[in-house]
Design goal:
5 helices, elongated, 2 domains, Arc Repressor Mutant, subunit A, 36% helix, 149 residues
Length: 149
């Protein structure tokens, strides 16, 4: 992203996806119609892929988060773990990774017992071995991807 005004707009909406056009226009020094036009262009180009609410995991009953590395039990099995696990809604993210494991899952659940059940479900659904790391505290996440120019 070379345009400094677009970068500034992206930085602002990364921090606050509910910022109004008036707030954005004040931040970047353009009219609201110019900001709206730029936002539409960024959306059309696929730079902005959507807007979403960020929820408090504790408030919605999923205070326990963990990372689960998964490795196929049989190296010759099809590499379709993401599709096999997609139905497990406690999995917030699935990343293909380099290293010994094939994928890293980020999960949120209600309790240690729910995590144990989820790990069991992952193993059965995808025929994988797992290594789980429980998150004790998160200092930051969902950081803006773009900083102003």
């Amino acid at each position: 992203m070379d345009d400094p005004v677009d970068r500034a707009i992206l930085a602002e909406i990364s921090r606050d996806g509910r910022a109004t056009l008036a707030q954005l226009s004040e931040s970047v020094g353009l009219s609201t119609s110019a900001v709206q036009s730029r936002l539409r262009r960024l959306e059309a180009r696929g730079v902005i892929t959507g807007y979403r609410a960020v929820l408090d995991p504790e408030a919605v009953g999923a205070p326990l988060s963990a990372f689960i590395e998964i490795t196929p039990l049989d190296p010759a099995q099809p590499d379709n773990a993401p599709e096999l696990l997609e139905h497990l809604t406690a999995i917030e993210a699935c990343h293909s990774i380099a290293g010994d494991a094939a994928y890293m899952l980020f999960v949120r659940v209600a309790s240690p017992r729910a995590l144990e059940q989820l790990v069991r479900d992952v193993r059965l659904a995808a025929n994988v071995s797992t290594r789980t790391t429980v998150v004790l505290q998160t200092f930051y996440e969902h950081r803006p991807l773009v900083s102003p120019a």
